[in-house]
Design a protein that fits this description.
This protein is α+β, with helices and mostly antiparallel strands. It has one domain: Aminopeptidase, CATH 3.40.630.30. Strands 1-2-3-4-5-7-6 form a 7-stranded mixed β-sheet.
Length: 175
C-alpha cells in the first residue's frame, strides 16, 4: 500500500463510514476498537453519530483511523467569563461533540491524529451555516489525550472536558 505522494507526503482521505473492513482496525484501545466494530454502523444508521474514516487514497478498504461527530450541549456556566458575557442569558449552548478519535496503532507517529482532528474541525465549521454550533467539545480519556487537544488550542471546561470555540476554528481556517 503506497501512502506517499511524489514529495513523500502521505496520501490519505477521510470519508463517511461505509462498507470498509472494520474488523481489522486496531488502535491499541479496546473501547475505541470495539466501538468501530460493534456500534459505529448502528450509530450512523440511527442518526446518533456521524462516523468518518481515514483511508489510504490508493486502498480504501482498510480503515487507518476514524472519528465521530454528534450534537451536544454545553453549560454556559462552565465557560470562561469572557465567553459567558458574549453568550447572553443562554444556560445551554449548542456544540459539536468530537466523541471518538482513533488512529491505527501501526501508524502512530505519522501525525494522523492531527489529520483527523483538522478534518473534524473543518466539517464542524462547514455545518454551521445549517446547524449552529458554539464550539467543538471533546471528553478526553486521559491527561495524555488532554495534552493532545490543548496543543491545538482546546481549553479545559472541567475535568477532561475541553472545548474550542467555533469562532476560533473559523479564524484558523479562514486566514
Amino acid at each position: 500500500m503506497s501512502t506517499e505522494s511524489a514529495k513523500g507526503e502521505p496520501k490519505f482521505i477521510v470519508e463517511p463510514l461505509g462498507h470498509q473492513n472494520r474488523a481489522d482496525f486496531r488502535s491499541g484501545d479496546d473501547a475505541l476498537d470495539s466501538y468501530l466494530l460493534e456500534r459505529a454502523a448502528r450509530d450512523v444508521r440511527e442518526k446518533i453519530a456521524a462516523v468518518f474514516v481515514l483511508l489510504a487514497q490508493d486502498d480504501r478498504g482498510e480503515i487507518l483511523g476514524y472519528y465521530t461527530l454528534s450534537d451536544q450541549e454545553i453549560d454556559a456556566g462552565d465557560l470562561p467569563l469572557a465567553l459567558t458575557r458574549k453568550t447572553g442569558k443562554y444556560r445551554r449552548l449548542p456544540a459539536t461533540l468530537l466523541g471518538r478519535l482513533a488512529v491505527a496503532e501501526k501508524l502512530r507517529g505519522l501525525r494522523l491524529g492531527e489529520h483527523l482532528l483538522v478534518d473534524a474541525l473543518r466539517r464542524a465549521l462547514g455545518a454551521t451555516p445549517y446547524v449552529m454550533s458554539f464550539a467543538v467539545v471533546v471528553d478526553a480519556k486521559s491527561d495524555l489525550v488532554v495534552g493532545f487537544y490543548e496543543k491545538y488550542g482546546f481549553v479545559r471546561l472541567s475535568g477532561n472536558r475541553l472545548f474550542l470555540p467555533m469562532k476560533t476554528i473559523e479564524k484558523t481556517f479562514r486566514t
